[in-house]
Amino acid sequence: MLTKFLRVGTLVGVLGVPGVVSAQDIADTIYTGGPILTINDSAPKAEAVAVKDGRIVAVGAMGDVNAHKGDQTQIFDLGGRAMLPGFVDSHGHVVMAGLQALSANLLAPPDGDVTDIASLQATLSKWAEDNAEAVDKVKMIIGFGYDNAQLAEVRHPTRQELDEVSAEIPIIIVHQSGHLGVANSKALEIAGIDASTEDPEGGVIQQGDDGEPNGVLEEYAFFQVLVPLLSKLGPDGMTAFANAGTKLWASYGYTTAQEGRSSASIVETLKAVDTAGTLEIDVVAYPDVLEAKEYIKDNVSKAYTGHVRVGGCKLTIDGSPQGFTALRDRPYYDPVGDYPPGYAGYAAVKMEQVQDAVNWCYEHGIQVLTHANGEGASDMLIAAIGVAQDKYPDAKTRPVLIHGQFLREDQVDSYKRLGVFPSLFPMHTFYWGDWHRDHTVGPVNAENISPTGWVRQRDMMFGSHHDAPVAFPDSMRILSATVTRRTRSGDILGPSQRVDVMTALKAMTIWPAWQHFEEDRKGSLEVGKLADFVLLSDDPTGVDPEKLDQLRVMATIKEGDVIYEADDGVQKGELVRPDFAFSPAMADQFLHAMYDGLNRR
Fold it and tell me: Are residues 258 and 340 in the same domain?
């Protein structure tokens, strides 16, 4: 596998005569033979990098780096490929991506084949057929990733339409946002949801014209069905999730992943996977502060145990902008569905819960990552952080805004004043930019979704994330969207919010490393930092920005070890979606968990 990259040799006469260095500085490996982008402003490009014991010992000109070459030093020939620091996940859900991997793929192109309700039904039927033994045994069908914005009908499927796939077997499909989903009649029956069931706080059970549930469950109405299912997976199921997710992240060049709304059981699963030796990248977990305060307090650390650490708290204020559940400060522009006049979304939690959670994090010196999509949610977060900082002025916790899809410019000023790091979602401009322009915020305000331009005008750092499994953790799609802001239809959404390629790369490397308190060891190629690298098919600073999404991750290297290589048979520029195989036993356990979880209702 590695022979195409790794060549052992002296390269004397190419690198020059080695200088004199101490024995402990003799490199295990020297990387050269392609453009090297260091993401270090003082020396942005290098000819070679030397690594020993998983850390960088030299970066710079070949002659200088060659001084670290000994008789046993291996020369890693980049073969013209570009080398950068490994990508750092600014926000995602690496374990929960296993749900995406194990279920029917209901994503729209280019990530799947679902374009209308008929193709959604066909995909579910095909998945059920392919997993017939497990489905027949435990009576459950599960799909992930449908998006009403991308369906020809421009609406959610109904329970009746899922009943056409099966009226006897419970079916649950998860919206691409992860904030809502649809259940068929049998699943609703097992879950005990009917016309008399009241909406839970922070959630909605949608009803049809007949007053009966139409199958669509929003926010906590959906979570109250889904979460028990996932919690029943058990150690083997969660281990499969973790392994699948981290392998997927590595295939897109990530050497550090985030589990951005985890639980104690998820963190313990990650630790077990790491102990077993199959966790190849670092994972920073942020358990839900409303559910796991004691666990967070007992386990939070800036130091890894193996490849795992608890980085702080996660708080969720509102929901999905494309699903019309994010809390705005004004009505949605043209929401698709049965919404009352002036509908502006809703908060998933009360202001007192937000304040108590933020205060608790500041009191204990713990970083808080807060999901706030709409302007109304940001108003709540800004107010809560202001109170907490007045009460605990010495806390240096680097609070993080997650998403911030709809922001007013004055809110960006407030986040700068409060020292909040914005982890933004410019990939939304590709996936849902047209939908935001036409339905959520309208053509004027859509120009400023994920406002990276406003952030840079204020000299603020930011992270650019994928929120997988909401979307694939596709690093090149992120890079492309942050630079071009081109939508699926080809529109450019907010040209003034675009940034240059190097800025976009910083938002995937050194700035999210700072976000995680890891800028001293990750995010740039500098002496003393970890040998975490990604190799790309071409230099992203040297290609047409419109072709950034065609770049490929050729290899991912974690602390000097190659943990992912692209298939030789794939042509340069061809978009790759890695597939992972799961055993029938794992599918069986997964479906059992779904069935048991429904019965708990």
Answer: yes
Q: Which amino acid is at 174?
A: V
- pLDDT, tens digit, 9 for 90 and up, residues 205-254: 999 989 999 999 998 788 777 666 655 556 777 788 888 889 999 999 99
Residue of 49, 85, 53 lying closest to 69 (CA atoms): 49
121-126 CB contacts, 8 Å cutoff, 24+ apart: 121/157, 121/161, 121/162, 121/164, 121/165, 124/162, 124/165, 124/171, 124/173, 125/165
Render 353-375 in DSSP notation, one character per residue: HHHHHHHHHHHTT-EEEEEE-SH
Of the candidate ranges 25-34, 96-105, 319-328, 575-584, the one whose mean pLDDT is the lowest = 575-584
| Closest to 549 in 3D by CA, of 538, 562, 557, 558 | 538
H-only helix segments in 276-372 = 293-299, 351-363
Q: Which two tokens stand for residue 516?
A: 């995680």
Q: What is the pLDDT of residues 374-399, one digit of tens each?
A: 999 999 999 999 999 999 999 999 99
**Same structural domain, 298 and 226:** no
Whether the predicted pLDDT of 494 surpasses 60:
yes
Among the three residues 467, 489, 519, which one is the final residue of a domain in this structure? 519
Is 355:349 a contact under the CB 8 Å cutoff?
no
**Of 251, 272, 94, nearest to 580 (Cα)?**
251
Measure the N-to-C terminal CA separation of the chain; round to a whole number of Å.
49
Same-domain status, 398 and 496? yes
Sequence-separated contacts (24+) of 10-19 with Cβ below 8 Å? 10/69, 11/66, 11/69, 11/75, 14/62, 15/48, 15/62, 15/63, 15/65, 15/66, 15/69, 16/62, 16/63, 16/66, 17/66, 18/66, 18/67, 18/68, 18/69, 19/64, 19/66, 19/67
Domain shared by 175 and 275, yes or no: no
> Could you tell me which residues are beta bridge partners of residue 52?
55
Question: What does the longest C-alpha to C-alpha distance in the chain come to?
Answer: 83
Give start and end residues of each alpha helix (H) in 397-489.
409-418, 428-431, 433-435, 442-445, 452-457, 475-484
Of 520, 578, 564, the residue nearest 254 (C-alpha): 564
Q: Which residues, in sequence order, are bridge partners of residue 217?
A: 181, 205
**What pLDDT score does 574 carry?**
31
Return d(Cα 539, Cα 550) in angstroms, integer.
12
Amino acid at 377: A
Instruction: Provide mean pLDDT across the span 538-556.
Output: 97
Residues 6 or more apart from 309 whose CB is under 8 A from it? 282, 283, 284, 285, 301, 302, 303
CATH of the domain at 310: 3.20.20.140
Cβ atoms 402, 313 nearer than 8 A: no
Among 501, 519, 537, residue at a domain's last position: 519
Q: From CA 312, how far away is CA 316, in angstroms rounded?
A: 14
pTM: predicted TM-score of the whole model, two decimal places: 0.84
State the angle between helix axes of 584-600 and 219-231 in degrees (0 to 180), rounded to the nearest 10. 130
Q: What is the pLDDT of residues 449-485, one digit of tens each?
A: 999 999 999 999 999 999 988 888 999 999 999 999 9
Residues 207 and 284 in one domain: no
Number of domains the chain is built from: 2
What's the CATH number where 209 sits?
3.10.310.70
